[in-house]
Design brief:
87% helix; transmembrane; membrane
Amino acid sequence: MLNDPLFILVIVAVAAVLIILLMGIGTFGVGGKVARKHSNRFMRYRIYAQAVAIVLILLFIWLRGGN
């Protein structure tokens, strides 16, 4: 399965969602001006990345004949 480029793309997309999520949570933890300036932006980016990851997962399942 690691030879499948679509699977690798799915893994990268899921990892990107995780990284963006952790960065957003980190800005909430810092608080103050940093949180006001960046936390909502990170969470918005997470939503976009998560949507892309879900589409890629569904595409992978559909193309590989999953039930």
